[in-house]
Amino acid sequence: xxxxxxxxxxxxxxxxGALFSQAGRLADLVLDLDAxxxxxxxxxxxxxxxxxxxxxxxxxxAGSDRTARVGSTDPTRREEELLTRAATELDRVGGLLQxxxxxxxxxxxxxRALEPALARVDLVVDGHLVVERSGPSRxxxxxxxxxxxxxxxxxxRVTAARSRELARLRRELEQSGTTLAALSARARSGx
Amino acid sequence: xxxxxxxxxAADPATLRALATARSTTRxxxxxxxxxxxxxxxxxxxxxxxxxVEQAADTLAALSEALEERLLGLGAxxxxxxxxDAGRVGRP
Lengths: 191, 92
What we know:
Number of helices of chain B: 2
Helix content of chain B: over 70%
Distance between the termini of chain A: 55 Å
Structural class of chain A: mainly alpha
Radius of gyration of chain B: 20 Å
Largest interface: A-B, 55 and 47 residues
Number of helices of chain A: 4
Number of strands of chain A: 2
Distance between the termini of chain B: 32 Å
Shape of chain A: rod-shaped
Oligomer: heterodimer
Order of helices and strands of chain B: HH
């Protein structure tokens, strides 16, 4: 029996898992950057509050804290945002690849389930078609024809589900690729 | 990079360390991604996936470059602030 190549589900599953893991690591980097920036911002506010109080001789810490907050920004905010967007894309495509792996495994299993019925009437799958095995057959021609039509219908369902998932995967990969290309451009242009 | 007042940020060491870690991590993730050779068993989808992997690796490399730029900018600003502070201390 030949079927359009089922691919290597282990390799796509491995990539999907790696993308989940990479997305998690990027999210951790964002947390680290954000935590460092927050600590630095708090320390800066405290320093400026003390300096203002010393220069004016007042203890208006609320006022100086307000001034400090207005003047302080997260120096790594842009990088955090870019990392977050990249993590989202890696996570999304990781999920798509895992879903595709499930579909491919299920399609292969459904195809294997047809094998006994195909063998009983000397039929085989060639690509997306159920065809007669070469050589003579003892199976009644009418029965063989009826089985061929029935099994072709079952095969069509398997291939249609697989084709739909492949088309969806392609569309999503193309969209995600465009998003990632825009992220690359932003990262390199400093915007 | 400034703090909204035109003055450059003097990043604290923890921020610089976090940036350095992020820079090297994104670089190694980019390289790691290119070691994968997935096979979906359908030529048009395979092409789309190969192109996506290339693009994702490029994006991670671009992020690494952006993080390096920020690291250099904040590191230079921190050095300038240290020099200014040292000058103030040295003045009568």
